[in-house]
Predict the structure.
Amino acid sequence: MLFRSIWMYCFSLFLVSFATASHAESPWSLNLGFTSLYLDSESHGFQEEGLDAMALNYAVVYRFNNSASVKVGMAKGVKSFPQTEDGRDLSATMNYVDLQFGYDNGEIRPYFFFGLAQVDVSPEAGSTQTSKRLGFGVEHEVFDNWSVNVDYSLITASVKEGESESATTIGFAYRFQ
């Protein structure tokens, strides 16, 4: 799993940087939120009109400067609306890596991003593939080091011959000092 390796590498860098950081503002932040995944149901083997899953989203962000950053994260499904034929909930996980570009005025930071994602749905009828992500969002500072973040992304089909999918995330971010 390429994404799992990238995630572990970035998390290790984050821990080392945090342990050795001085009191200057850190380029690292930790995001936690909820994601609504809207997936192409028929390509994933379900007869539902739309395949929605709620996921717990967590990510590590490294800011190169005030306008460019990289974000590595995972959205792990906690509740799916359709169920399998035997009554079990659907399991959905999305791993992603994004490059973000935005404008930071100190309080509000609108941004757009693009990156790669892998969406795994279980049980799966189609064969998964790495997808491209494109989206936009806004981050608003609420308190020192704390901000609220909302973003929307369009995802190319995560299953061969599927249709476009999307994810909407709302959550909090903590920027280390």
About this structure: The first helix runs from residue 2 to 20. Strands lie at 28-39, 51-63, 68-80, 91-102, 108-122, 130-143, 146-155, 165-175. The chain is about 10% helix and 55% strand. The radius of gyration is 17 Å.
